[in-house]
């Protein structure tokens, strides 16, 4: 007897080249067809299969080339539907995802994604616009200040290594190791900048070219990859300018965050705050501090800047959130008071899986134009996602750096500088060089150029957020100034917040005429802002958890002749009274030039004034870049003032194309004034979604609630998405939340039975809309099937037949199940007598089951026959039938052997090996 294994790959057969040892290796990634009771034609792509161990179905993808350990989350998708984030194997080539209750018929159009880029297929650049050649953006005028210049302070450098700490949900303790670079001999207390690296390999074998692992602690013969040392140049620049800096190690989190629903954001937040708590202790009691801290200038914990790279960016964002709005105690590993104040964050190529930025903490987000890891530049949501959430006084800046990749901001991830193996994350195909990002292209930065530019803009953020020097703001807020120290990098910026007011936002009841109000995320191309066939992508439209979202919109303008105005009318008139200019965030297709608009506004008395004209050129882009990114365009409001327009009641905005034809997207428009606003965090409610795991039970019906904790203060609104595990569709609703309430009420009815089935996840995802913050954005109720696996047997039905008849075996289970049961069988060589050959079976049957032909004639066991049989739900068995042809050749009795196998095509050690015999026709 064999316990049933829910292994499914094909409705009829799975092919694997089993001729000899090399063929057996191929069994790891057969070309398979989708499980289906009605068709054999719907094929899974090469490298995919569905199998299971211990009663749990898994969708498995295997790639011949390892996927490097990086920051983007690897995701399985079926069309536009997110199936989930798979678990990687140690070799980085095999990824497994528990399917739960996902029906086989929903596993169509399977693909593997990571931050918008497809891992199981090459990017299609065949639609790249004919003669459009990527052009370097024009160099902006220099700013009056240059934060990239070193300061006058001498510095001290050193390491501290404290006892490791345990974090909730992680079995292995995490290191408390850091590198300090600080001014030496500086008077008074100095602001503190803390750096947190992203997700990268954790260990390497010295002397090897590519032996990198994700283990922690490192195995014998391996050393830790010192990712935390990769920002020394940034730290040295800041320390010379008077800032205390510390870069902390997070290898222990990187090795374990694959199992965290939030990708490790809460764990990284805890680690950051544990280090800050130590610094607070050391500030109060200098004698207890490590030597390097005692030698450095005293840190001022009331002025803290958090700098995070990739998943470290999302981690420091969560740390800023948790410092203002405490997380649920059960989820948090820090216990103690908040004795610091985060004044701002710098987020370098960050992830933001939760799309939950902290609206009341100023931020600067660096977006690398050639990012090959977090390639959808989802960090743009740290800007876009703050609109309308809170007071809007915190400045949120996006810094788009043309030609920068993901890794080279960290010298320990840079070839030629790192002690461990490292590479260019963008990658390059010598036969199909990318016109923008291939090394040596005019638009691509070298590692040294990129790192220097990154250090300059980190220093700009420190100077603005910690030192309060408004002179550097034009480098960050879309004013179109450059820092000479960042040359030759071309850097563009835009921003929201600060002293902006009166936003024209394409949602919340806004009406649009002369253009199309489009949705950032929608499966319908007629509704979506970017057609799915568009080469390249937009950071503004990065995917979240659902195939359709509400409240993420833009205005899509498309024209074939100039002169037709697009009018944007908000639900109620806006005030631009205290503004000097109108700032628009607009993007056009990459590599285009000369798009022009007239910009006009109308007040509530229908007085209309043309403010001026703007021009925008597309960014350098290719099918592999996220270059549909909005540039900030400004027009003075002086014409409106001269005309007597009532700027307190502006009811509409018009954009009138003046170029012959084209397309553009408006993200928003704001009244703009110079200066930096004082920022005070609002008291807001916080929402965290938990997870409850329950047993299905054998009978009766029970109702459970998806666990949601609402803490904090005040009242706000969030949007709750309900993810249906059966249909794959989502529903959403707007919910008003208050601390301690059960406003997010999601009951789940669980029916007990004694039928073997799948575990099922009933999940929700939550996003802030107004006056609220969201910590853990996704969770739900997991219903575990607690019924025993059925026993599976293989038995003969007709195992001694004559030519022209059929050999038949039956695969059976001892009781019907609620899921498809799939079990592979393999034709083995015979051990005695003559073996059936490829010409003894029906040729169409052979083609259907093995993809092979009878000639040249050979033993049947050499014909790659590894067959997966399906017992559908509610059934107890299925027959495996082998049609034998009748020939005119006199032959002795011939036979074939059949065995149950594991998913590597190896016969099960306790399984039967059955023989079928064919007699010559008399």
Describe this protein's structure.
With 922 residues, the chain is mainly beta. Helix content is 10%, strand content 33%. The strands form 11 sheets. Strands 11-12-17-13-18-19-20-21-22 form a 9-stranded mixed beta sheet, sandwiched between helices. Strands 2, 45, 47, 48, 49, 51 and 52 form a 7-stranded mixed beta sheet that branches. The protein is globular, with a radius of gyration of 31 Å. It starts with a strand and ends with a strand. The relative contact order is 0.11.
Low-pLDDT parts are 1-43, 126-131
Give the mean pLDDT. Answer: 90
Number of strands: 52
Relative strand content: 25-35%
Radius of gyration: 31 Å
Query: Structural class, from secondary structure content?
Result: mainly beta
Helix-residue proportion: 10-25%
Shape: globular
Strand order within the widest sheet? 11-12-17-13-18-19-20-21-22
Could you describe the largest sheet, including whether it forms a barrel? 9 strands, mixed
User: Between the first and last Cα atoms, what is the distance in angstroms?
Assistant: 37 Å
Count of helical stretches: 10
What can be said about this structure in brief?
With 922 residues, the protein is mainly beta.
Which short descriptors sum up this protein?
922 residues, mainly beta, 9-stranded mixed β-sheet, 7-stranded mixed β-sheet, 10% helix, 33% strand, disordered N terminus
Q: Which SSEs are present, and which pair or pack?
A:
Elements: E1 2-3, E2 14-15, H1 21-26, E3 48-53, E4 56-62, E5 74-78, E6 81-84, E7 87-88, E8 94-98, E9 110-114, E10 117-118, E11 155-165, E12 174-183, E13 190-196, E14 203-204, E15 212-213, E16 223-224, H2 232-240, E17 244-248, H3 251-254, H4 265-284, H5 291-295, E18 299-309, H6 311-324, E19 342-348, E20 363-368, H7 381-384, E21 396-401, H8 447-465, E22 491-496, E23 501-504, E24 511-513, E25 516-519, E26 553-559, E27 566-569, E28 581-587, E29 595-603, E30 608-616, E31 631-636, H9 638-642, E32 650-657, E33 662-672, E34 685-689, E35 691-695, E36 701-705, E37 708-712, E38 716-723, E39 730-737, E40 747-751, E41 760-770, E42 773-774, E43 778-784, E44 791-798, E45 800-802, E46 806-813, E47 821-828, E48 834-835, H10 843-850, E49 865-871, E50 877-883, E51 894-900, E52 913-919
Parallel strand pairs: 13-17, 13-18, 18-19, 19-20, 20-21, 34-42, 35-43, 45-52, 48-51
Antiparallel strand pairs: 1-44, 2-49, 3-4, 4-8, 5-6, 5-9, 7-8, 9-10, 11-12, 12-17, 14-15, 14-16, 21-22, 23-33, 24-27, 25-26, 26-33, 27-32, 28-31, 28-33, 29-30, 29-32, 34-37, 36-40, 38-39, 38-41, 41-43, 44-46, 46-50, 47-49, 47-51, 51-52
Helix pairs in contact: 2-8, 4-6
């Amino acid at each position: 007897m064999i316990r049933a294994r829910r292994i499914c790959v094909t409705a009829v057969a799975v092919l694997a080249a089993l001729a000899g040892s090399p063929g057996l290796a191929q069994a790891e990634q057969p070309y398979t067809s989708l499980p289906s009771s009605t068709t054999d034609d719907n094929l899974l792509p090469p490298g995919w299969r569905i199998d299971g161990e211990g009663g749990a179905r898994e969708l498995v993808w295997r790639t011949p080339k390892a996927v490097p350990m990086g920051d983007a989350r690897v995701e399985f998708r079926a069309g536009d539907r997110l199936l989930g984030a798979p678990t990687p194997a140690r070799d980085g080539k095999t990824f497994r995802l528990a399917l739960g209750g996902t029906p086989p018929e929903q596993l169509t159009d399977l693909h593997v994604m990571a931050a918008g880029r497809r891992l199981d297929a090459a990017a299609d650049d065949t639609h790249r616009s004919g003669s459009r050649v990527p052009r370097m953006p024009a160099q902006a005028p220099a700013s009056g200040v240059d934060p990239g210049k070193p300061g006058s302070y001498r510095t001290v450098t050193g390491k501290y290594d404290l006892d490791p700490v345990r974090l909730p949900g992680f079995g292995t303790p995490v290191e408390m190791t850091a590198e300090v670079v600080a001014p030496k001999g500086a008077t008074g207390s100095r602001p503190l900048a803390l750096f947190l690296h992203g997700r990268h390999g954790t260990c390497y074998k010295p002397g090897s070219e590519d032996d990198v692992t994700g283990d922690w602690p490192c195995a014998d013969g391996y050393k830790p990859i010192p990712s935390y040392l990769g920002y020394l140049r940034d730290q040295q620049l800041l320390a010379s300018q008077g800032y205390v800096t510390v870069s902390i190690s997070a290898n222990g989190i990187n090795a374990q965050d694959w199992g965290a629903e939030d990708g490790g954001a809460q764990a990284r937040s805890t680690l950051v705050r544990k280090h800050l708590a130590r610094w607070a202790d050391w500030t109060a009691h200098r004698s207890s501090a490590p030597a390097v801290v005692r030698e450095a200038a005293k840190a001022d914990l009331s002025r803290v800047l958090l700098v995070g790279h990739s998943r470290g960016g999302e981690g420091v964002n969560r740390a800023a959130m948790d410092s203002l709005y405490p997380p649920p105690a059960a989820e948090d590993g820090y216990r103690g008071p908040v004795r610091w104040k985060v004044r701002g964050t710098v987020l370098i190529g960050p992830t933001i899986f939760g799309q939950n930025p902290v609206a009341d903490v100023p931020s600067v987000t660096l977006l690398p134009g050639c990012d090959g890891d977090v390639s959808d530049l989802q960090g743009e949501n740290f800007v876009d996602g703050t609109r309308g959430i809170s007071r809007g006084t915190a400045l949120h800046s996006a810094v788009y750096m043309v030609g920068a990749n993901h890794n080279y901001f960290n010298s320990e991830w840079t070839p030629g500088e790192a002690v461990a193996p490292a590479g260019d994350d963008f990658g390059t195909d010598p036969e199909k060089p990318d016109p923008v990002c291939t090394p040596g292209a005019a638009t691509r930065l070298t590692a040294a150029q990129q790192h220097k530019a990154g250090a300059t803009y980190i220093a700009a953020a420190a100077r603005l957020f910690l030192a309060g020097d408004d002179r550097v703001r034009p480098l960050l807020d879309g004013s179109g100034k450059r820092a000479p120290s960042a040359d030759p990098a071309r850097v563009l910026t835009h921003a929201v917040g600060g002293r902006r007011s009166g936003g024209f936002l394409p949602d919340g009841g806004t009406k649009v005429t002369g253009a199309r109000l489009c949705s950032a995320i929608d499966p319908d191309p007629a509704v979506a802002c970017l057609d799915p066939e568009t080469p390249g992508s937009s950071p503004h439209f990065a995917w979240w958890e659902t195939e359709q979202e509400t409240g993420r919109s833009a205005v899509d303008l498309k024209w074939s002749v100039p002169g037709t105005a697009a009018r944007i009318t908000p639900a109620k008139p806006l005030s631009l009274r205290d503004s000097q200019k109108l700032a628009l965030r607009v993007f056009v297709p990459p590599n285009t030039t000369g798009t022009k608009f007239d910009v006009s506004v109308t007040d509530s008395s229908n007085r209309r004034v043309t403010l001026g004209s703007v021009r925008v050129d597309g960014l350098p882009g290719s099918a592999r870049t996220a270059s549909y990114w909005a540039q900030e365009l400004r027009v003075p409001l002086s014409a409106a003032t001269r005309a007597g327009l009532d700027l307190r009641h502006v009811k509409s905005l018009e954009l009138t194309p003046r170029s012959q034809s084209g397309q553009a997207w408006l993200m928003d428009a704001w009244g703009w004034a110079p200066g930096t606003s004082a920022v005070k965090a609002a008291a807001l409610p916080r929402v965290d979604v938990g997870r409850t795991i329950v047993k299905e039970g054998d009978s009766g019906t029970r109702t459970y609630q998806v666990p949601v904790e609402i803490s904090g203060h005040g009242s706000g609104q969030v949007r709750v998405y309900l993810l249906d595990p059966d249909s794959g569709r989502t529903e959403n609703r707007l919910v008003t939340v208050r601390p301690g309430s059960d406003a997010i009420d999601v009951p789940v009815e669980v029916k007990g039975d004694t039928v073997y089935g799948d575990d099922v996840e009933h999940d929700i995802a939550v996003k802030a809309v107004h006056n609220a913050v969201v910590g853990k954005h996704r969770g739900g109720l997991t219903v575990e099937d607690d019924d025993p696996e059925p026993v599976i047997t293989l038995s003969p039905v007709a195992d001694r037949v004559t030519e022209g008849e059929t050999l038949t075996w039956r695969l059976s289970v001892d009781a019907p199940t609620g899921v498809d049961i799939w079990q592979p069988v393999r034709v083995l060589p015979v051990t005695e007598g003559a073996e059936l050959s490829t010409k003894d079976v029906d040729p169409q049957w052979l083609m259907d089951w093995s993809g092979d032909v009878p000639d040249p004639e050979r033993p049947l066991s050499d014909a790659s026959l590894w067959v997966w049989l399906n017992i559908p739900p509610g059934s107890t068995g299925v027959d495996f039938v082998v049609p034998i042809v009748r020939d005119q050749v006199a032959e002795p009795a011939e036979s074939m052997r059949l065995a149950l196998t594991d998913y590597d095509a190896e016969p099960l050690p306790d399984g039967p090996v059955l023989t079928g015999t064919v007699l010559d026709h008399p």
